[in-house]
Amino acid sequence: MIEAVDAEQPELSDGVAAIAAELAVIRRDWRDAHGHKAEYGSEGFPSRGDLGKIVGALCGALYPLRLGPDFVRPHNEHVFVEQTLQTTLARLYGQIRLELIYAMADETIHAVDARAAEIVSNFTRRLPALRRLLDTDVEAAWRGDPAARSVDEVLICYPSMLAIIHHRLAHQLHIDGAPLVARIVAEVAHDKTGIDIHPGAQIGDSFSSTMALASLSARPRSSGGASGSIRA
Predict the structure, then answer these.
(1) In terms of CATH architecture, what is 45-231?
(2) 189 band by pLDDT with thresholds 50, 70 and 90
(3) What is the C-alpha separation between 187 and 164, in angstroms, rounded?
(4) What are the φ and ψ backbone dihedral angles of 51, each rounded to 5 degrees?
(5) Alpha helices in 9-108 (DSSP H)
(6) Domain segments of the chain: what residues?
(7) How far apart are CA 43 and CA 207, in angstroms?
(8) Which residues are CB-neighbours of 222 under 8 A, at least 6 positions away?
(9) What percent of the chain has pLDDT over 70?
(10) What is the pLDDT of residue 54?
Protein backbone atom coordinates (compact mmCIF):
# COMPACT_ATOMS: atom_id res chain seq x y z
CA MET A 1 0.00 0.00 0.00
CA ILE A 2 1.30 3.45 -0.89
CA GLU A 3 1.13 5.91 1.96
CA ALA A 4 0.06 9.46 1.24
CA VAL A 5 2.79 11.95 1.98
CA ASP A 6 2.10 15.64 2.33
CA ALA A 7 4.08 17.45 -0.33
CA GLU A 8 6.26 20.26 0.95
CA GLN A 9 4.88 23.58 -0.23
CA PRO A 10 7.41 25.85 -1.92
CA GLU A 11 8.19 29.17 -0.29
CA LEU A 12 6.72 31.73 -2.67
CA SER A 13 6.14 34.80 -0.52
CA ASP A 14 9.40 36.56 -1.42
CA GLY A 15 9.07 35.76 -5.12
CA VAL A 16 5.43 36.88 -5.26
CA ALA A 17 6.24 40.15 -3.53
CA ALA A 18 8.96 40.88 -6.08
CA ILE A 19 6.66 40.05 -9.01
CA ALA A 20 3.87 42.24 -7.58
CA ALA A 21 6.33 45.12 -7.21
CA GLU A 22 7.53 44.69 -10.79
CA LEU A 23 3.97 44.63 -12.08
CA ALA A 24 3.28 47.87 -10.20
CA VAL A 25 6.20 49.50 -12.01
CA ILE A 26 4.93 48.24 -15.38
CA ARG A 27 1.44 49.61 -14.68
CA ARG A 28 2.87 53.00 -13.73
CA ASP A 29 5.04 53.12 -16.84
CA TRP A 30 2.06 52.21 -19.03
CA ARG A 31 -0.15 54.91 -17.51
CA ASP A 32 2.58 57.52 -17.77
CA ALA A 33 3.20 56.64 -21.42
CA HIS A 34 -0.46 56.82 -22.36
CA GLY A 35 -1.55 59.77 -20.27
CA HIS A 36 -3.68 57.71 -17.88
CA LYS A 37 -2.99 59.77 -14.79
CA ALA A 38 -6.62 59.16 -13.86
CA GLU A 39 -7.01 55.84 -15.61
CA TYR A 40 -10.49 54.82 -16.73
CA GLY A 41 -11.45 52.57 -13.87
CA SER A 42 -9.24 53.94 -11.10
CA GLU A 43 -12.36 54.80 -9.10
CA GLY A 44 -14.02 51.53 -10.02
CA PHE A 45 -15.05 49.96 -13.28
CA PRO A 46 -18.23 48.21 -14.43
CA SER A 47 -17.78 44.58 -13.42
CA ARG A 48 -18.28 41.80 -15.94
CA GLY A 49 -19.00 39.36 -13.12
CA ASP A 50 -21.56 41.62 -11.47
CA LEU A 51 -23.25 42.46 -14.77
CA GLY A 52 -23.50 38.76 -15.59
CA LYS A 53 -25.38 38.23 -12.32
CA ILE A 54 -27.53 41.30 -12.94
CA VAL A 55 -28.59 40.13 -16.40
CA GLY A 56 -29.19 36.62 -15.08
CA ALA A 57 -31.53 38.09 -12.49
CA LEU A 58 -33.29 40.18 -15.15
CA CYS A 59 -33.80 37.03 -17.23
CA GLY A 60 -35.45 35.48 -14.20
CA ALA A 61 -37.64 38.55 -13.71
CA LEU A 62 -38.75 38.46 -17.35
CA TYR A 63 -39.44 34.70 -17.36
CA PRO A 64 -39.73 33.78 -13.67
CA LEU A 65 -41.17 30.27 -14.06
CA ARG A 66 -38.62 29.20 -16.65
CA LEU A 67 -35.46 31.25 -16.06
CA GLY A 68 -35.95 32.13 -12.40
CA PRO A 69 -34.83 30.07 -9.38
CA ASP A 70 -36.52 26.75 -8.69
CA PHE A 71 -38.56 28.03 -5.74
CA VAL A 72 -40.62 30.33 -7.96
CA ARG A 73 -44.17 29.11 -8.52
CA PRO A 74 -47.31 30.78 -9.89
CA HIS A 75 -48.44 31.77 -6.40
CA ASN A 76 -45.23 33.71 -5.61
CA GLU A 77 -43.89 34.79 -8.99
CA HIS A 78 -45.27 38.34 -8.77
CA VAL A 79 -43.58 38.95 -5.41
CA PHE A 80 -40.38 37.39 -6.75
CA VAL A 81 -40.38 39.63 -9.83
CA GLU A 82 -41.03 42.78 -7.81
CA GLN A 83 -38.32 42.02 -5.26
CA THR A 84 -35.84 40.95 -7.93
CA LEU A 85 -36.36 44.15 -9.90
CA GLN A 86 -35.95 46.29 -6.79
CA THR A 87 -32.55 44.81 -5.93
CA THR A 88 -31.29 44.16 -9.46
CA LEU A 89 -32.07 47.60 -10.84
CA ALA A 90 -30.30 49.19 -7.88
CA ARG A 91 -27.21 47.11 -8.70
CA LEU A 92 -27.53 48.07 -12.37
CA TYR A 93 -27.62 51.73 -11.34
CA GLY A 94 -24.32 51.23 -9.54
CA GLN A 95 -22.68 49.71 -12.62
CA ILE A 96 -23.97 52.45 -14.92
CA ARG A 97 -22.80 55.09 -12.47
CA LEU A 98 -19.26 53.68 -12.64
CA GLU A 99 -19.30 54.07 -16.42
CA LEU A 100 -20.67 57.60 -16.28
CA ILE A 101 -18.11 58.83 -13.74
CA TYR A 102 -15.59 58.68 -16.59
CA ALA A 103 -17.88 59.33 -19.53
CA MET A 104 -19.01 62.55 -17.77
CA ALA A 105 -15.65 63.48 -16.27
CA ASP A 106 -16.31 67.22 -16.66
CA GLU A 107 -19.69 67.06 -14.92
CA THR A 108 -20.48 67.17 -11.20
CA ILE A 109 -21.12 63.95 -9.32
CA HIS A 110 -24.73 65.08 -8.87
CA ALA A 111 -25.12 65.26 -12.65
CA VAL A 112 -23.63 61.77 -12.95
CA ASP A 113 -26.05 60.40 -10.35
CA ALA A 114 -29.00 62.05 -12.05
CA ARG A 115 -28.02 60.69 -15.47
CA ALA A 116 -27.52 57.17 -14.11
CA ALA A 117 -30.94 57.34 -12.47
CA GLU A 118 -32.47 58.56 -15.73
CA ILE A 119 -30.95 55.67 -17.71
CA VAL A 120 -32.16 53.08 -15.21
CA SER A 121 -35.61 54.67 -15.14
CA ASN A 122 -35.89 54.58 -18.94
CA PHE A 123 -34.62 51.01 -19.02
CA THR A 124 -37.11 49.94 -16.35
CA ARG A 125 -40.05 51.44 -18.22
CA ARG A 126 -39.03 49.48 -21.33
CA LEU A 127 -39.02 46.07 -19.64
CA PRO A 128 -42.69 45.21 -20.40
CA ALA A 129 -42.18 46.05 -24.08
CA LEU A 130 -38.97 44.01 -24.12
CA ARG A 131 -40.82 41.02 -22.66
CA ARG A 132 -43.47 41.26 -25.40
CA LEU A 133 -40.74 41.57 -28.04
CA LEU A 134 -38.92 38.53 -26.65
CA ASP A 135 -42.16 36.55 -26.78
CA THR A 136 -42.18 37.05 -30.55
CA ASP A 137 -38.59 35.75 -30.70
CA VAL A 138 -39.50 32.62 -28.72
CA GLU A 139 -42.53 32.04 -30.91
CA ALA A 140 -40.48 32.44 -34.10
CA ALA A 141 -37.83 30.00 -32.88
CA TRP A 142 -40.46 27.44 -31.92
CA ARG A 143 -42.29 27.69 -35.24
CA GLY A 144 -39.05 27.70 -37.23
CA ASP A 145 -37.57 24.54 -35.71
CA PRO A 146 -39.41 21.25 -36.30
CA ALA A 147 -37.36 19.66 -33.51
CA ALA A 148 -38.71 22.09 -30.90
CA ARG A 149 -41.51 20.49 -28.90
CA SER A 150 -42.61 23.58 -26.99
CA VAL A 151 -41.88 27.23 -26.43
CA ASP A 152 -40.61 26.29 -22.98
CA GLU A 153 -37.97 24.05 -24.54
CA VAL A 154 -36.85 26.90 -26.79
CA LEU A 155 -36.62 29.29 -23.87
CA ILE A 156 -34.75 26.95 -21.55
CA CYS A 157 -32.52 25.00 -23.92
CA TYR A 158 -31.61 27.15 -26.92
CA PRO A 159 -28.36 29.14 -26.59
CA SER A 160 -29.65 31.49 -29.26
CA MET A 161 -32.55 32.49 -27.02
CA LEU A 162 -30.16 33.33 -24.21
CA ALA A 163 -28.17 35.41 -26.69
CA ILE A 164 -31.19 37.32 -27.95
CA ILE A 165 -32.47 38.01 -24.41
CA HIS A 166 -29.08 39.45 -23.51
CA HIS A 167 -29.04 41.43 -26.73
CA ARG A 168 -32.49 42.96 -26.20
CA LEU A 169 -31.39 44.14 -22.76
CA ALA A 170 -27.96 45.29 -23.96
CA HIS A 171 -29.41 47.18 -26.91
CA GLN A 172 -31.79 49.07 -24.66
CA LEU A 173 -28.91 50.06 -22.39
CA HIS A 174 -26.89 51.07 -25.45
CA ILE A 175 -29.52 53.43 -26.79
CA ASP A 176 -30.33 54.76 -23.31
CA GLY A 177 -26.74 55.94 -22.86
CA ALA A 178 -24.68 53.18 -21.22
CA PRO A 179 -22.70 51.76 -24.15
CA LEU A 180 -19.89 50.24 -22.08
CA VAL A 181 -22.25 48.40 -19.74
CA ALA A 182 -24.18 47.27 -22.81
CA ARG A 183 -21.02 45.96 -24.46
CA ILE A 184 -20.08 44.00 -21.34
CA VAL A 185 -23.56 42.43 -21.29
CA ALA A 186 -23.10 41.45 -24.94
CA GLU A 187 -19.75 39.85 -24.15
CA VAL A 188 -21.29 37.91 -21.26
CA ALA A 189 -23.72 36.41 -23.79
CA HIS A 190 -20.91 35.83 -26.28
CA ASP A 191 -18.96 33.91 -23.64
CA LYS A 192 -21.98 31.80 -22.66
CA THR A 193 -23.32 31.03 -26.14
CA GLY A 194 -20.61 31.72 -28.72
CA ILE A 195 -23.03 34.12 -30.43
CA ASP A 196 -21.69 37.65 -30.89
CA ILE A 197 -24.25 40.43 -31.37
CA HIS A 198 -23.06 44.01 -31.03
CA PRO A 199 -25.38 45.95 -28.69
CA GLY A 200 -25.76 48.66 -31.32
CA ALA A 201 -27.40 46.24 -33.75
CA GLN A 202 -31.12 46.87 -34.19
CA ILE A 203 -33.05 43.63 -34.56
CA GLY A 204 -36.67 43.43 -35.60
CA ASP A 205 -39.30 41.31 -33.90
CA SER A 206 -39.78 37.56 -34.36
CA PHE A 207 -36.04 36.96 -34.59
CA SER A 208 -35.58 33.24 -35.19
CA SER A 209 -33.01 31.12 -33.41
CA THR A 210 -31.52 29.81 -36.64
CA MET A 211 -30.76 33.34 -37.77
CA ALA A 212 -29.19 34.22 -34.42
CA LEU A 213 -26.52 31.57 -34.85
CA ALA A 214 -24.63 33.89 -37.16
CA SER A 215 -22.13 36.34 -35.71
CA LEU A 216 -23.67 39.79 -35.94
CA SER A 217 -22.24 43.27 -35.65
CA ALA A 218 -23.58 46.78 -35.92
CA ARG A 219 -22.25 47.20 -39.45
CA PRO A 220 -25.02 48.13 -41.91
CA ARG A 221 -26.84 44.98 -42.92
CA SER A 222 -30.41 43.81 -43.19
CA SER A 223 -32.31 40.61 -43.50
CA GLY A 224 -36.04 40.66 -43.90
CA GLY A 225 -38.67 37.99 -43.88
CA ALA A 226 -40.68 36.19 -41.26
CA SER A 227 -37.63 35.38 -39.18
CA GLY A 228 -37.04 39.05 -38.34
CA SER A 229 -34.56 41.67 -39.42
CA ILE A 230 -31.40 43.33 -38.28
CA ARG A 231 -30.08 46.75 -39.17
CA ALA A 232 -27.48 49.15 -37.86
Answers:
(1) Orthogonal Bundle (1.10)
(2) very high
(3) 12
(4) -70, -35
(5) 13-33, 48-62, 64-67, 77-103
(6) 45-231
(7) 39
(8) 229, 230, 231
(9) 78
(10) 97
